[in-house]
Amino acid sequence: xxxxxxxxxxxxxxxxxxxxxxxxxxxxxxxxxxxxxxxxxxxxxxxxxxxxxxxxxxxxxxxxxxxxxxxxxxxxxxxxxxxxxxxxxxxxxxxxxxxxxxxxxxxxxxxxxxxxxxxxxxxxxxxxxxxxxxxxxxxxxxxxxxxxxxxxxxxxxxxxxxxxxxxxxxxxxxxxxxxxxxxxxxxxxxxxxxxxxxxxxxxxxxxxxxxxxxxxxxxxxxxxxxxxxxxxxxxxxxxxxxxxxxxxxxxxxxxxxxxxxxxxxxxxxxxxxxxxxxxxxxxxxxxxxxxxxxxxxxxxxxxxxxxxxxxxxxxxxxxxxxxxxxxxxxxxxxxxxxxxxxxxxxxxxxxxxxxxxx
Amino acid sequence: xxxxxxxxxxxxxxxxxxxxxxxxxxxxxxxxxxxxxxxxxxxxxxxxxxxxxxxxxxxxxxxxxxxxxxxxxxxxxxxxxxxxxxxxxxxxxxxxxxxxxxxxxxxxxxxxxxxxxxxxxxxxxxxxxxxxxxxxxxxxxxxxxxxxxxxxxxxxxxxxxxxxxxxxxxxxxxxxxxxxxxxxxxxxxxxxxxxxxxxxxxxxxxxxxxxxxxxxxxxxxxxxxxxxxxxxxxxxxxxxxxxxxxxxxxxxxxxxxxxxxxxxxxxxxxxxxxxxxxxxxxxxxxxxxxxxxxxxxxxxxxxxxxxxxxxxxxxxxxxxxxxxxxxxxxxxxxxxxxxxxxxxxxxxxxxxxxxxxx
DNA sequence: CCGGCACTGTCAACCGATTGCCTCGCTGCC
DNA sequence: GGCAGCGAGGCAATCGGTTGACAGTGCCGG
Lengths: 358, 358
Fold this sequence. Notes:
Chain A has helices at about 5-15, 35-45, 50-55, 65-75, 80-90, 105-120, 135-145, 160-165, 190-200, 220-235, 250, 255-260, 270-285, 315-335; strands spanning about 95-100, 125-130, 150-155, 170-175, 185, 205-210, 235-240, 265-270, 295, 310-315, 345-350.
């Protein structure tokens, strides 16, 4: 039906609004206002405070009265108004989750893990994206803070001072990056990277490369450092190939450099770049893993779909998200002593790694 | 650290609380309470209502006073408390987005499109998952409604009565499913499916299959109907292969039936199942597209990664999410006459389709 | 018979912002 | 000189729920 009928409805509404109840102005589009504890109180014949207590402090009110109140509330379809409660108590039962880039599959599992935990704990999740920009990230946290009890930021781009400043207002937890003095949840990259180096060495590789991610990312520097130290300790030669954007195309553009460097295997900052690199190899006729072995990082959705499927390091992102959310909720509740679990990473060997060419 | 230390802290807190400011009880963990308009008013020496007006009704207040108020607000780090405003105005500037399954990449683009629009319009996004269960979906919408101005449900599993009931409380918009009397945004599946049938016919296929999705899904029935009518009109034979779960494994388990049916090409309910089917074909040594051509639906992330890459139907999910959010915001604002754009689907030919075996 | 206590329920203040209505003072015009 | 008109700002009610203080009732033991 086109809008003729819609306008008809609008007229009807206006006629309804002409009654002498000024609250009717809120009732746009024939929607009825929600029932309040005052409505319930009136029906049952008690005071609003009694209704509040009956619903929230079991036992505080006579069992029979409580039962009558519950019935009436049910009948009226009463729902507590979280805003009203929040105004007085200062607790909104909402937490914010901020990721830098929704398009990055790395975050999917984290979001899922965090959402499950938040829901389980009775918290509502507010979701926002910072579009990889630290200024937007800061402004978004500031904007969201009054509405939520705490903020979980994944892979924050803020500097430590900014994080500390935000932390003065409401609890904040950082995932995927350690920050001094701020609760954070970070998987142990070392276990998986060590396995990767060992794996490559066993396959006969002597010279490996690291295709870098953005140099401003803590995770990138961290991975390089571990890789470097361990490769050197193992007597392998290692080079860092400077980064492009941490997306598939950013992997693809670096293929020529990688080949020119003479390495036989490359560990890539993340799976997205690794996937782009594999695609480019196929396009250019470079044999993977015959000519070049490739190891990714994160084991994102899609890593096992591509051909050859990607050998990568699983960083159990779902658990990271869940643990970070538990950590945040502990902060929010003032619970002391929540210790996030150790989250080791581990190598998942698939088809993109094989013996070094002789 | 166990609870001994925790109690020690509690004592400290209690000592702090012994000052004569009762508000100190709110200041848990040395976090300072947010500044209010009362604080600003006191600093400037005006009444709170003046502060409110200065900040929200430009021109209502003397320009110099307004300037002083803005300065003081800035200096105090004042942020408006959305709860307080919401309580009075009934507008929370938040909208809920409910998807049935975060793990399904179909929803990624939709979430992204919706998030961008919501942010652009100054709305905060509340995010929840219904875990593919209609009871959870209903309860979640009910739970969220008091906190938000409207709800966007993607691929709702509710029946029309339930949706209508929820719609009585707050605006609700459904994406990916048409519901009588409720605003909805659904791409036009027909354009893409017709192209797919034509494409397969041009390749010489005469007998095609449709690997079905869950029979309760509107989209599944809809796609079958279009496919059926068009294939018949084109003089092709077509069979429906009953569904398993709409996930990769649900595609894999149906390979034997598909082969047994004698079809040379199969259109699959969604990309996830198609991806599973391709994987299974590789595992079983079935040549794709030599023996069997496969067409997916949605063009999700990953469809172009798998080998052979998947011929599929792009349903521009990002635009669906964006349009649905605009639609919802129009409802929320009471703006009449928002007309969601026509969203045609279109075939994307990749490697998984080829000439029919002779 | 009375003090004390447990049990139920009410009162009223409060959270922070918004807004209709009012007041005060000044200007300008008849 | 008187009064309308206007600009600037204050007062107080309001949104819905929570909570400390308190009142009324009934019951108990001493």
